[in-house]
Task: inverse folding
């Protein structure tokens, strides 16, 4: 029987494999959520580098948030990643939810990024 860690890794790789088929050269907006914080990166897979990153631990956000583990924090991180990505010249991305369900904090981050100007 596969361990929980292996199952999560397999699910994340399945999602990324599907994204590569539809990406058409667009960078990927990767999301990771932990029990206390949420993180987002815009990654250019062809060059293998991160174009923009944001998290609920950023100094500008941390002071204004009650906690890094709620929907309000996720939406704020989404807006911040959209701002930083547009500054880096990225308007269109593919959304990589990883092994997480598109629900709750992950969905709030996506909505915040769309509100901030990213399209996916």
Result:
């Amino acid at each position: 029987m596969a361990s929980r860690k292996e199952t999560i890794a397999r699910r994340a790789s399945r999602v990324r494999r599907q994204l590569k088929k539809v990406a058409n050269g667009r960078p990927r907006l990767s999301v990771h959520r932990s029990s206390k914080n949420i993180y987002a990166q815009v990654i250019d897979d062809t060059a293998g580098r991160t174009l923009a990153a944001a998290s609920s631990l950023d100094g500008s956000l941390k002071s204004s948030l009650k906690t890094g583990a709620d929907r309000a924090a996720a939406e704020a991180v989404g807006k911040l990643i959209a701002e930083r990505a547009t500054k880096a010249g990225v308007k269109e991305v593919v959304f990589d939810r990883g092994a997480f369900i598109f629900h709750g904090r992950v969905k709030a981050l996506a909505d915040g990024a769309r509100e901030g100007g990213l399209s996916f």
Notes: Strands lie at 28-33, 38-44, 49-55, 94-96. The first helix runs from residue 4 to 22. The chain is about 45% helix and 20% strand.
